[in-house]
Amino acid sequence: ALESIDFKNALEQFQNLVEKMIIQKTKESSGLCTKDGDEIDYDKFYSTTRTLFGPAVKDQNIQAFFRKIMSNADERPEWPEIFGCFTGERDGMSSPSKESMVLLISEKQQITHSVVKRKDIIKGIVKVPLLDLTITASQRGVLTVFNKQRKSFFSYSFYFHQDTAWITGCDYLPNLKYVVAVTESTVILWDYKSKESKSDGFVIKPMKNCLLCVCTVTMADNLAKDTILMGDDKGYVYLLTITSDDFIMKQSKTGKVSQFKVLDSESFDIPKRKLHDDWVGKVKYFPALKRFGSCSTDSINSFVLDDIKRLEDQLPVKEFSVPKGVNAFTYCGKAKVIVTGG
């Protein structure tokens, strides 16, 4: 493997090479460049990159990187692209357990079970480490739980369809042992432990605004209830607490939706607060901080980080402004930083 100091030097030389190529391409576009011995063509770029990084880079990634510079010199590629970090494995030849010489990757396992059909996409994927579960929700209503046992995956799927509502997010309720998913107008609670032929669960409806995201608030103060956060298309963040008693006491007279019993949303106390002036793209609760986060493409109220009690009062919240808003965020406990992506 390359020594870190050698890699740093190689990377600096590679970046200098890219800068020369961009200058060369810019001059060519302006009609100022004349052919000379310093011209960098593909063969020279290929051989120099191979000399710097050796077998850590693949031919197709070198070719793609060179083509990207030549097609648009103004949009500079990031250096990890030369190692194929932003492209999928297409050749199928590399072993997933083999370590890259530059960037270490953990062993991967592909799930060959087909959980979605054509013209359907995965809208949510959640890992539950304590139970070794992976949950996926597709836009058209396929909820799937993968359980890794004996080095193979077992899956339980249920197809939920109501009118034309699309699923927009999912999570796991650790105390009630249910999968929660949100559509444009409902909250789905799926008892994945029931057999596939007898899938059981509940639907909370109607929700007035279009729900776009959901997450679980993990607190160990009460094992008989779970709390979830939801965001909608009007900038509101909701706080919904569900207990096992709700499944019995709050069933609606409207009957069932498929195999799912209907719970009247009007019977729940659902605090909400408008935190953004645009769609809420993501909500997340951080147990280590005892705070929740929500983000939006709103340029003024782009990211909020505060106690969930702020959803039940009107006290000021800690918010940050980012031009063109925030699409994603995460927290790293080891570094004690929050990172946002716009």
Walkthrough of the structure:
This protein is α+β, with helices and mostly antiparallel strands and about 350 residues long. The protein folds into 3 domains: about 5-85, no CATH class; about 120-275, 7 Propeller (Methylamine Dehydrogenase, Chain H), CATH 2.130.10.10; about 295-340, no CATH class. About 15% of the residues lie in helices and about 35% in strands. The chain is built from 4 helices and 20 strands. The chain has helices spanning about 5-30, 40-55, 60-70, 245-250, and strands at about 120-130, 135-140, 140-150, 150-160, 165-175, 180-185, 185-190, 200-205, 210-215, 225-230, 235-245, 250-255, 260-265, 270-275, 280-285, 290-295, 305, 320, 330, 335-340. Strands 5-6-7-8-13-12 form a 6-stranded mixed β-sheet. Strands 1-2-3-4 form a 4-stranded antiparallel β-sheet, with no helix packed on it. Strands 9-10-11-14 form a 4-stranded antiparallel β-sheet, with no helix packed on it. Helix 1 runs antiparallel to helix 2. The model is unreliable at about 90-100 (pLDDT under 50).
CATH superfamily of the largest domain: YVTN repeat-like/Quinoprotein amine dehydrogenase
Low-pLDDT residue intervals, each spanning 5 or more residues = 88-100
Structural class: alpha+beta
- Which strand order does the major sheet show? 5-6-7-8-13-12
For the sheet with most strands, the description reads: 6 strands, mixed
CATH architectural group of the largest domain: 7 Propeller
What is the alpha-carbon Rg in Å?
Answer: 25 Å
The separation of the N and C termini measures: 35 Å
Total strand segments:
20
Shape: elongated
Helix content: 10-25%
CATH class of the largest domain: Mainly Beta
Summed over residues and divided by their number, the pLDDT gives a mean of: 82
Annotation field: number of helices: 4
Estimated share of beta-strand residues: 35-45%
Order of helices and strands: HHHEEEEEEEEEEEHEEEEEEEEE
Task: State the domain count.
Answer: 3
Q: And the CATH topology of the largest domain?
A: Methylamine Dehydrogenase, Chain H
InterPro entries: WD-EF-hand_domain, WD40/YVTN_repeat-like_dom_sf, WD40_repeat_dom_sf
Keywords: Repeat
Protein name: WDR64 protein
